[in-house]
RNA sequence: GCCAGGGUGGCAGAGUCUGGCCGAACGCGUCCGCCUGCAGAGCGGAUCAUCGCCGGUUCAAAUCCGGCCCCUGGCUCCA
């Protein structure tokens, strides 16, 4: 069975065939480091992460690059609020973003390149475009001539005549065609350009702009344009042609379209074989979640409230290109979904470690269910990374595990072991969920022993018929995050 | 206006490429039963969908074709 992906270039689901059958070059359009990351960003990250993990599972050697845009007017707008200079502000957000990524249990990319560290490569690329007749200089700025690239518009299906102008009025006057876009911008940052983005506590615009970074170039001092960075960094760290380029749906035009144009004009080669676009996350009011609208939940807040597993389950409960809304309802459903999986895993591992698990016992139903779950998981992931379907197969596995444990006195050791391996391999390695972090009965650590102690007191109360006291102890434990469940074999607990 | 993606049960959300296994997955919710001092978890069962509208193709359509309505995103910084 082969992987199929929806390619924005063709608008169709296509078989995935990387240039080199053994490896995949993957680029993800990362963030501008001017605001804390919000859940919408996490949606992109987590889906790219799972794509990466699935490609690993399929046996590809994945080279994954994800940039930080640390040169941008919006960063300059934060000077005074979150730092003392553009570079300083950018650095503080890079740090918080990396922390968020860790918190989300993302597999590391191979490189996280920054624009500020790739200016020479950007300048080289711009020169190449000028040499080849695709770009021109005007007053120290350099623009890409969209009419020179015949295929301009092929990614977003835009028609040049229908397009509105890109750039500021000043830029417009320098351009040959309204749709031309800047590769290099002369000078520093114009105070007028940042005023609208400034918040309370920001430095005066003129002062903030003083701290904006500029670089020497063949056209004088200036700054790189927005789109050119990704082309330069993708080519530097991967290759002139990469296999998969992923980004937010909002970037299709103009950002990705321009990347295609400038890259392919410069190299004469295909820039990216497959373009995958992650749909934006919607806020409860059905609007997109975005920094500028201020209607977001930050990654840090979400992780704090729900933890990485619930957040990931929530994000993976919707296919990467489908609409998804973040609300208290949708996140608590994800919580229930994750917990059910985790309980199944814990029951399975607990049973496996008990003396009731026997290699001689064989439950055909359990084993068939494990087999089916594995097949369905694989089929779902291969079908354009259908994470919702993949999650569904693990639920069915959970149902089979629970049914087996409920219906039998002696357990099927081999079947349970296969089930546990499936959780770990697919739920763990591929979906990036972690199970079994709760403290098991009989765990040797102090917290566990103390809970045991409280539970034994509660058992005495129950035996004595003092249910009120027993329930009070249960409620108190609950308040501390210890969930108590009475079973045939005595009380069990798990930490939330 | 132009481009892209959506409209599936109370909610959420697969399936649409490759028409039939879809009288529609997984789940949340609700109800009943088992278990249980109670609760939770689990198990079993039930409830819940004329798949946006109209027309067409076909033995057969959520899935293909045509028209229309509505929503979201992009066309300005944005994952």
From TrEMBL:
Cysteinyl-tRNA synthetase class Ia DALR domain sequence ranges: 376-442
GO cellular component, one term: cytoplasm
Ligand binding (ATP): 291
Entry GO MF terms: ATP binding; cysteine-tRNA ligase activity; zinc ion binding
Positions that bind Zn(2+): 29, 230, 255, 259
Motif position, 'KMSKS' region: 288-292
SUPFAM superfamilies membership: Anticodon-binding domain of a subclass of class I aminoacyl-tRNA synthetases, Nucleotidylyl transferase
The EC number(s) this enzyme carries: 6.1.1.16
Name of the protein this chain belongs to: Cysteine--tRNA ligase
Annotated source species: Halovenus carboxidivorans
